[in-house]
Amino acid sequence: MNNRRVIVKVPASTANLGPGFDTLGMALSLYAWIEMSAAETTTFRLYGDQMQGIPTDKSNLLYRVAQLVFEEAGVSIPELDIAMYSDIPLTRGLGSSASAIVGALAAANALIGSPLSDHKLFQLATILEGHPDNVGASLFGGIVVSAWDGDRADYVRLEPHAKLETLVAIPAFQLSTEKARHALPSQISMADAVFNVGRSSLLVAALASGELGLIRHAMRDRLHQPYRAPLIPGMSAILEKAAEYGALGAALSGAGPTLIAFVDADSQNKSELEQFLLATLKQEGIEAETMWLKPSAEGPVITVEDAASPCPGLMERIKGEVVR
Question: What contacts 42, CB < 8 A, 6 or more positions away?
Fold first, then answer.
């Protein structure tokens, strides 16, 4: 039997960043942890409120993703011991499914000696997730510009500006990606398409060159946010006015309902911005949790150990890092 034990720490992500629908993503300093080893019988230890309702049989996403890796590598490990804890809230627009997919891919690959390249893992992750933006960010860290034609995914990674910070407002309700996608029209006008190509290009250039002052104008969008706004009361006001309270720009995070503001780390207006976000949502009867998150420069951090050696349980190992 395989004698390794693998622990993977994988970052959350925010996707779209306004105009870059299904193409732009950024890793965030909020994490999930997955522990994986070969076993006599498949068992799951899923910790925390985030994991409630997640299957604990072989229909579990982590198990299925791991088996896909083994199949690709021509290896058989039919039984696994899997543990997971996540600080990333489910179905809130912070890439919880992408982090689970990337974490499971990275853990399973490391368990068998890492025969699959990062490029291969990216292709698999994109197919599993259905778009490359969140998985690219969680896999490579930093800011990832990606494209997928249904066949091949390509990406370029950008190093986040040292002064770039984010504030997320996480409403106390879930919004499925499916429902958020259902709100989108099947066609848009040429004018709106050209508008978004321009903004998305400008945003990538601003992030690549460190022109943070351009973010405010570059994050505007006509492709998805206007259509999703009715699902998230208060969103339109936040996107419109966040810059007045010190934000570099603001967007819906992924499919929502989380809203994200980009902020200069040296800003003197952080508390005003935070209060504006919370008050705007509260006016609509929505309670929300705010968190200040930095871009995560790293993708999965992988620890490989001898499975026979004694070790503390997953929660004991990570207790100093857990935030939620």
Answer: 57, 58, 63, 78, 79, 80, 81, 82
